[in-house]
Amino acid sequence: MIEKEFFTTIETHYNSQLPFVAYRKPNEGFVKAILQKDGAIHTVNDFTESGFLFSPFDSKKDTILFPLEQSKTISCEYIISSEISNISKLKRKKEASNNSENEQEQHIKLVEQGIKAINEGRFEKVVLSRVEGVPISEENPIEIFQNLLENYPTAFVYLWYHPEIGLWLGATPETLLKIEGQRFKTMSLAGTKKYDDAIEKPWGTKEIDEQQIVTDYIVNNLQDIVRDINVTTPKTIKAGELLHLQSKISGVLKSEHLKLVVETLHPTPAICGLPKIETKSFILNNENYNREFYTGFLGELNIKTSKSRNTNRRNVENNAYSTVKTTSELFVNLRCMQIKNQQAFIYVGGGITKDSNPELEWEETVNKTQTILSVLLN
Ligand SMILES: C=C(O[C@@H]1C=C(C(=O)O)C=C[C@H]1O)C(=O)O
Description:
Helix content: 25-40%
Number of domains: 1
Protein name: Chorismate-binding protein
Pfam families: Chorismate_bind
Largest sheet: 10 strands, antiparallel
Bound molecules: ligand ISJ
CATH topology: Anthranilate synthase
InterPro entries: ADC_synthase (IPR005801), Chorismate_C (IPR015890)
Order of helices and strands: HEEEEEEHEHEEEEHEEEHEHEHEEEH
């Protein structure tokens, strides 16, 4: 399918108010879409299903599925154009994103509560977040999606829509997991600073510690279900105009129960905290809004691909030499927004430790909001 046809097909589907997701995986040169044929709400029961899932932060709530057998899948090559200016941006109703003093005060208060709880020994790290609504006067989500595709080549970029649930977009740098056959990969991502023309600037102790907390949590919890675990030393990665610390973690799955793997990992201390139960309830009780799908996860669930083991032409023609692999690839829903009632709601947060400074934590959320808004708004 050619690019124009791809985008017209999803636009028609959206205009018919039917559920769909369009996405591009990190560094890939093509976009895919899964278009559900009816308007039903399907959910994931035990992670043996096949399709595209969209899961909220709070795992007690339903994980939505676009089942492959009830959807049409389309794809096309997507080359990033050098003429970004051709792509229209959202029209903002008010001039600048003026954070109200109230929002700032509220977030700083929340961070102070988090630090207090850490000092009382209730937990070690907690990720606290907020949502910012920006009034917009035009909403063509497909154009916003194209903007994200152009500006975030190394992110998982998506546009997700269900008429009864909502419209979400994002460009996330964080993988929750990739499972290919028995091969397993994840990452530990934390620590944030603004990119200012240099990637290799030293990190502070606060960031090094908060990323190590995530790595240790993942490695310790995977021991029972993954063998031959390998962890890379933390490296700086760039996500939009931000830098993070990242370690790659890989191994071989001992069991095929994807549900167990997901429950073991989600929510990691990269987006919730340590320990998990205490920080999750602190978040649900103290944040001033509902995260919904922000810091949840999304992606392909149990997709079967047939791979030929030998590219020799005679072997390719012989089916006996091809193998079928089941792959799942899930991403943490960060750097995302929901579009609702002529507003773009942008979700941002950051990890709080005993060394956090509330003012700086506020600024980190402002930087995160701006990295998203800068590519979207005129
Ligand atoms: C919670 C977010 O990001 C997470 C928190 C980070 C941090 O605290 O430095 C960095 C990357 C993510 O693991 C977000 O972007 O909203």
